[in-house]
Amino acid sequence: MSGASLLLLALLPSACATSARPDLDAVLEDVREVVGAPGAILAVRFPDGSVECYASGVADLTTGLPAAVGDAYHLGSVSKTLTAAVVFRLAEEGHLDLEDPLSRFLPEFPRSEEITLRHLLQQTSGLKDFYLYLYFRPDRAEMIEAVTRNWTKDQLIGLAARFGHHFDPGQDWDYSSTNYFLLGVVIERATEMTLAAAYSHYIFDPLGMTSTWLVLHEPPRADMPFTGYLGEVKGWPHSEMFGELGASTVLEHSSVEWGAGGVVSTAADSLRFLDGLFGGELLKASSFERMLETVPAKALGAGGAEYGIPRDVASAYAHGLMRTQRPAYEMLGHGGIFAGHTAGLWYLPASGIQLAVYFNRGFVPQRLLIDRVVEALGPTPSEPSR
Question: Exposed/middle/buried for 26, CB within 10 Å: 0-12, 13-18, 19+?
Fold first, then answer.
């Protein structure tokens, strides 16, 4: 770890320990170099409540500014877990029920009487992902304009309504950010708050998360110096515009991410959320048990065959949470990719360890880092389950 990173680590609030483990520092540095990310952050919360944070590389290749553990970054689809948590809070308060049809809040949406909130939460609605439509426009300039346009909520609802279904609601599973965009609309209509205000009211304020916000919808609450980078991505025809590694800034002013991927946070704040969720501060035990109910799902995340990463043994999707069985361990949480940023927030049930992961390069196989961290830490006593 650089001297600047160590200094910033020492200046952080007590959420992060000022002493670091050389083995984890070395693991982060090595994995960052292997995957070709300019910068990376790793934060580990142990069962005793202690948190250690690590930073490697640079936040920006042009300026050479070192990555720092207190910097905020795009969570991408990790935001879905926060959106789901708010929905469960609203269910506890009687504002909605998971079996409510979408028509209760969006009667104008096609087939809304057949789609339940649970379908949206578990990715079983069958709705096609309109986000892919935006990112896969035939013309590059058209794609950039579509992704970064200042869409109104009604325009996005109309866009989501145009694309129909892959399958009938409840009959299969398919990952679609459309589901979580619609849940954001449900939250706003159920609470008469903005989504940003609902996040603050139900999550950020109760947990003391002072460095987390919904990007483009409220002022920044922490330094956010990371430039995202992309190389060519298999299957995405426009990724050649970034060459071997180019800044993805042109795509980052995106109002469409919102409840599906628009939250920005720091590693310490992210772990505070995960601990509050799994530790019983946010939800009643009965609600959290329901949140963990899963359906079979396809494996998610960036591919890792070129890095020799073993495949997942099994994958399932709960309500805004992925349950992934690796060859040597299980992890619960969510990963996220937003343009040139990769993030993850994970709980390892066998050890009680929580991990926040970030790279300022898109489509990084974060399982490589998590596998290495688990190997480096070895057996760790678990805290009692709830």
Answer: middle
Strands 73-74 and 213-214: unpaired
CB-side neighbour CA atoms (13 Å) of 302: 30
Give the span between the Cα atoms of 178 and 16, in whole angstroms: 35
How far out from the chain centre does Cα 93 lie?
A: 25
Q: How many whole angstroms separate alpha carbon 301 and alpha carbon 321?
A: 13
* DSSP class per residue in 245-304: SEE-GGG---TT-HHHH-EEE-HHHHHHHHHHHHTTSSS-HHHHHHHT--EE----S---
**Token pair for 369:** 């880092």
* Cα 370 from Cα 331, distance rounded (Å): 9
Contacts of 381 (CB under 8 A, 6+ apart): 47, 351, 352
Helix, strand, or coil here: 166? coil
Give dist(CA 175, CA 155) in Å, integer. Answer: 22
Sign of CA dihedral 26, 9, 339, 239: negative
Beta bridge partners, 54, equal 42
Q: What is the pTM of this model?
A: 0.93
User: What average pLDDT does the chain have?
Assistant: 92
Strand ranges, E, within 97-152: none
CA pair distance 27, 138, nearest whole angstrom:
40
pLDDT digit string (tens) for 274-314? Answer: 999 999 999 999 999 999 999 999 888 766 778 889 989 99
CA distances from 373 to 27, 44, 379 (A): 7, 9, 11
Neighbours of 106 (CB within 10 A): 18
- Chain centroid to CA 9: 23
CB distance 326 to 310 below 8 Å: yes
pLDDT (tens digit per residue) in 236-273: 889 999 999 999 999 999 989 999 999 999 999 999 99
Pairwise CA distance, residues 206 & 272, whole Å = 11
For 322, how many CA atoms within 13 A lie in the half-sphere containing its CB?
Answer: 26
Cα–Cα distance measured from residue 83 to residue 177, given in angstroms and rounded to the nearest whole number = 12
Which value, to the nearest 10 degrees, does the dihedral of the CA atoms of residues 271, 276, 282, 283 take?
110
